[in-house]
Amino acid sequence: MGRFIYNLLLPLGFLFFLPGLIIKYRNRGGWKSTFQERFGIFGDRKEELKKFQGAIWIHAVSVGETVVALSMIKRFLQRFPEQKFILSTTTTTGQDVARSKCPDNTAVIFCPIDFPGMVRSALRLLKPAKLVIFETEIWPNLISIAANKKIPVFLVNARMSDHSAKGYRKFGKLFFAPLLKKFTLIMTQTEADAQRFLSVSPDANVQVCGNMKFDQQLPELPEENVLNGYFGSAPDNVTVFAASTHPGEEELILDNYVALKKKFAGLKLVIVPRHAERGDDIAAMIKAREISFCRRSSSRLPENTTDVLLADTTGEMLLLMNGADIVIMGKAFAGHDEGHNLIEPALLGKPVITGAVLRNFRFILRVLSEKDAVICCRDEELYSTLDRLIASPELRQKFGKRAFDTINIHRGAADKTIDQLV
After folding, report:
1. If you write DSSP's letter for every residue of 71-116 in order, what string do you get?
2. Which has the higher per-residue pLDDT, 70 or 8?
3. Are the C-beta atoms of residues 202 and 168 closer than 8 Å to each other?
4. Is 29:92 a contact under the CB 8 Å cutoff?
5. Residue 113 and residue 66: Cα distance in Å, rounded?
6. pTM (2 decimals)?
7. If DSSP codes are grouped into helix, strand and coil, which group holds residue 370?
8. Residue 314 CA to chain centroid, in angstroms?
9. What is the β-pairing status of strands 352-354 and 326-329?
């Protein structure tokens, strides 16, 4: 009954979200040439994809989940070299990362929109041995149709916030409880996540396997600091890296940068917005403050060194972050409290600044906080926090090492997950 109502309302919901989908497709970068696969149309790729029938289909959403999925696939292939995979994404930026970094034995597709006909078209062509879904992508038709075809369906690296659990429980008996029971196994990041899933669907098969983001393998990065091409390599240079910023955060960070620049002449700033299409808006903010800057999207280095780099590109976060001295993780200030993944800067050994509340990454924040390996602050404390770190290379090194060591303690979730999938 719940799925019947869902399919009844799905066309209306799709029409409501279609304008946003079109705008994102037009403005956001990434891989677009096979976007028709979102509608279950595989065209000239059918013969190529038939060779992957019987593979494990892994679905991620955007760049973050895709990076973790790729790490799991690479670890899987180390243990089982003959295994084949199909990796699907939803966003064009995720698709671009998947295609540029996927290992051998892996085909990359766009995941079809959750209309029954589109899902069936993909399943008929791919005939996967298993369907593995990352984190929170609970699409009723994809899950139900695959389960009805006797394809084992797994939810891995699964997480559920208190807010989501409360919403799911409202419709639990009618919809979410029976849907979650269709998973062969739900593998959660933490015990708290497991309890939230069970509060929605007490009969679901749930097991704690840990957070695979701790198992991320960083790509091979060049020894040369890419940022030197923009900032030079003066000995007093200190680079602050604002990662995955959201509206409101750029203004806060720029205002603090202007104030701190008066005290630290060698201070540099990199801003990497979560959505690169916001580049024009952020460029206008920087111009209004009369700061020398250039844009990474211009694809050419400045003739003279600059003070601020606006990295309005996708897929280059780690490459640029590797050359920074301090990292501010976005979606944690200026009214945002959901947070972003702290693991990547920690693996690079960077001191990390974030907000005091990260609703989507509470476990990671708690793990780092318990070891005094992350610096949490409020908006009004950002100046003093940066001031302290900029002034002390020793303090930066101490926090960076603590962060790196703490993340390494928690590795192993990928192998636990793979053990359940084989």
Report:
1. HHHHHHHHH-TT--EEEEESSHHHHHHHHHH--TTEEEEEPPPS-H
2. 70
3. no
4. yes
5. 18
6. 0.74
7. helix
8. 12
9. parallel
CA dist 300 and 7 (Å) reads 49
For every residue of 279-292, DSSP letters joined together read: HHHHHHHHHHTT--
Q: Quick one: average pLDDT of 111-140?
A: 95
Tell me how many degrees the CA angle 103-407-421 measures, rounded to the nearest 5.
45
**Identity of the amino acid at 407:** I
- Torsions phi, psi for 270 (to 5 deg): -115, 130
DSSP conformation class of 157: E
Element (H, E) at 183: none
Ranking 163-167, 173-177, 200-204 by mean pLDDT, the lowest is: 173-177
The band of 361, judged by pLDDT with boundaries at 50, 70 and 90, is confident
d(CA 142, CA 32): 22
CB contact at 8 A, 117 and 38: no
Q: Calculate the CA dihedral of residues 163, 169, 172, 177 and round it to 10 degrees.
A: 70
* The pLDDT value given to residue 1: 64
* CA–CA separation, 74 and 106 (whole Å): 10
- Altogether, the residues listed in the chain come to a count of 422
Q: Are 196 and 175 in contact (CB under 8 A)?
A: no
Is 171's pLDDT higher than 80? no
Specify the DSSP element, H or E, that contains 155. strand 153-158
**Average pLDDT rounded to a whole number, residues 156-163:** 90
355 exposure class (CB count in 10 Å sphere: 0-12, 13-18, 19+): buried
CA distance 335 to 320: 26
Interacting residues of 11 by C-beta distance below 8 A, sequence separation 6+: none
**Cα(81)–Cα(70) distance, integer angstroms:** 15
